[in-house]
């Protein structure tokens, strides 16, 4: 059985290219069923990103029908390869699909993970986060900028110590607050966050740039310029 979906024009490399979805498994969810399908390229040497599709099925007198379709619930590698996945019930009331894919950046092999909770009203997809990487092929500081900065400050750390990372500062901070590891945060934010303690207080601060921004159509207003001046003055004191 194959489900066919026309590829997003922004992602396709040639007009009319499409992905075929191959059914992988079916789960029971209350009175409905959930079909998990993995994409396959319909054209050789495809550069369209692969995907993992979630399809909610409902029984009718004429047979099962698709009650909801999320053909790109999780995005895979840019060669039409779908993410690998597993299903677990360890997170709570509803089953969760754990989708993993790999990509290479600056010689670093990154494994990205997405969590898809299968609720009766539809899947809830987490933001992708990096769940592991192999930096043995990386050269110089590419892909290891934060590790290099911490080493320069005297912290004995290597890329292998960073098992779970994310490009989203919000995701990283939430993981720190939930006790999932160590992160970097502005001192003022850390001091006002309950349950978080500062490590290595003798370590000299890591300088980070702060931008004061506004919409270009508002920057000439006197009130906006006054607020910017006050904020710049106060930030300079910290």
What is the strand and helix layout of this fold?
Layout: E1 2-6, E2 18-29, E3 32-41, E4 51-60, E5 63-75, E6 84-88, E7 96-105, E8 108-119, E9 122-125, E10 129-134, H1 145-152, H2 169-177, H3 187-191, H4 222-237
Antiparallel strand pairs: 1-2, 2-3, 3-4, 4-5, 6-7, 7-8, 8-9, 8-10
Helix-strand makeup class: alpha+beta
**pLDDT below 50 for ≥5 consecutive residues: which ranges?**
1-17, 136-143
Q: What is the element string, with H for helices and E for strands?
A: EEEEEEEEEEHHHH
Compute the number of helices: 4
Give the overall shape, derived from the CA principal axes: elongated
Give the number of DSSP strands: 10
Helix content, binned percent: 10-25%
Largest sheet: 5 strands, antiparallel
Portion of residues in beta strands equals 35-45%
Q: Taking strands numbered 1, 2, ... along the chain, how are they ordered across the largest sheet?
A: 1-2-3-4-5
Please give the alpha-carbon distance between the first and last residues.
Answer: 62 Å
Rg calc: 23 Å
What is the residue-mean pLDDT, rounded to a whole number?
75
